[in-house]
Amino acid sequence: MNTPPDNDGESAPTDEVLSGEVVATPDGADSVDGSPEQPGDLPGALGGLDMGAMLQMAQDMGERMQEAQEALATTEIVGSAGGGLVTVTLNGHLHVRAVHIEPGAVDADDPTVLEDLIVAAWTDAHNGVARLQAQADPLGGVGGLGGALGGLGGLLGG
Questions:
Q1: Is there a domain that residue 147 lies in?
Q2: Are residues 137 and 82 in the same domain?
Q3: What is the pLDDT of residue 98?
Q4: Domain contains 59
Q5: By residue range, what is the domain housing residue 81?
Q6: Which phi and psi angles does 80 have, rounded to 5°?
Q7: Is residue 80 assigned to a domain?
């Protein structure tokens, strides 16, 4: 304990802090700010949170995320346009698996019609994947966190 001299030349005890830990206090206080610890306080902890349980919950969430990601990779969603003239098949990670174009969708004089049908079919499939991702989102029912995180599209491969 450091004991610098006070005004009358005698030494007065002071708090000594080593590595964030209070070593001693003369007035019975046992916290860094001098206030007495309250019953149930855990010095340096988060007010009694069970860190083991929190870590287990995080591990469980990671496992559910991995399972959801694997399920999305193997699921295929088909989008269509023009009454089925054009279909686009995507997996849950938005990878194109197939494109089918009926001969009636091809107009050699106006290829923009076919271009528009392909975009519309891809958009239809994409919207289906977005719905699937929202259903597979393990955080979807946790106080709206899933929506705040953008439906986890990036984490689930989108």
A1: yes
A2: yes
A3: 96
A4: no
A5: 68-152
A6: -135, 160
A7: yes
User: Would the pLDDT of 137 be above 80?
Assistant: no
Verify that 29 and 84 share a domain, yes or no.
Answer: no
pTM for the model: 0.52
80-119 burial, b if ≥16 CB within 10 A, otherwise e? bbbeebbbbbbbbbbeeeeeebeeebeeeeeeeebeebbe
Structural domains in the chain (count): 2
What the block records as the tokens of 102 is: 């009926």
DSSP three-state, residue 90: strand
pLDDT score, position 49: 78
31 and 76 fall within a common domain: no
Phi-psi region at 34: left, alpha or beta (left = phi > 0; alpha = psi -120 to 50): left
Q: Which two tokens stand for residue 81?
A: 């346009």
What distance lies between CA 101 and its chain's CA centroid?
38
Q: Which tokens sit at 139? A: 């955080």
Chain segment 56-108, per-residue pLDDT in tens: 888 888 888 888 888 888 889 999 999 999 999 999 889 999 999 999 999 99
